[in-house]
Amino acid sequence: MEKGNEPTQSLYGRLGGKNGIHSVVERFYGKIQEDSNVSHYFRNIDYAKLMEHQTVFLSFATGGPDYYAGKSLTQAHEHLKITPAHFDDVLGHLSDALIESGVAGSDIVQVLALLLPLKSRMTGDMKKPSV
């Protein structure tokens, strides 16, 4: 059975809880490291710390018990000058990591719908996001 086929569970639960999300995050950053278009944003990064931080963020965003208390997304990313195209590339890697982790398509859509509105805050592009 695909992860995500139990509608009574929260999105967090359907993703496999913290362990499932951490597994997705590991796949995701593996893809990031292999992509020369976006890997430069992650140079000189403590990946273990970043993966734990991202796991907490995604757990919080999907209804889990973790509380995200990090910097605002604007503060954390403004110095990177992320382009809208690179944001889309990164979201594509997350989508691929979710697919490879066996997450149901409807749950992938929900995760991406939670993150897509963050594009303008992370890129400074205040245009309406396209889907």
TrEMBL record:
SUPFAM superfamilies: Globin-like. Its cofactor is heme. Binds 1 heme group per subunit. Heme binds at H53, H77. One of its GO terms (molecular function) is metal ion binding. CDD domains: TrHb1_N. Keywords: Heme, Iron, Metal-binding, Oxygen transport, Transport. The keyword Transport applies. PROSITE patterns: GLOBIN_FAM_2. The keyword Oxidoreductase does not apply. Belongs to the truncated hemoglobin family. Group I subfamily. This is Group 1 truncated hemoglobin. It comes from Cohnella ginsengisoli. The lineage of its organism: Bacteria, Bacillati, Bacillota, Bacilli, Bacillales.
